[in-house]
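Good morning C.,

I know you're traveling, so I'll keep this short. The sequence:
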Amino acid sequence: MANKLLVIGGIRSGKTAMAEQRAQAAGEPVVYVATATAGDDEMAQRITRHQEQRPASWGLAEEPLQLAKVLKDVQAETANPPLLLIDCMSLWVSNLLFAGDEVFAREREAFLNAVEHYAGSVVVVTNEVGLGTIGMDPLTRRFADELGWLNQGLAERCDEVVMSVAGLPLTLKGSST
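The tokens, ready to paste straight into the viewer:
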């Protein structure tokens, strides 16, 4: 497995399952870093379903905003940091947009830096937003722009980038293992 892996895909493309399979196959301790918050019953059910599907041996860190802090804290806890599976960037960007421009800029830059310098393996899950139509309102356009720019920053820092299309891997960068 690549030291830094970005798994990108559309909604219901199989990207999370693919990322989880790759993390499990790595044979390392895993900490699942969840960015989702349960704002309604349907989202709470999604979160519960994801939790039930993950191996019981995996750790969990829930953090809707300060991902860089999670990476730094986990790395400081042990000489051999665990593999971090971070799911997902689209929810994180949404959370940051509602937190305000100052928080957004600070957290985005800190996270990209933390990913680059994390001593363990990282698997990041994100949505591809560049294949659809342009949003009809300013917030939707900003979301797509920000997530697209974040995806580019992550792809630059990752050793491997795999796109999930209908559950099938399409290697965009690095080797598919």
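Safe travels,
E.
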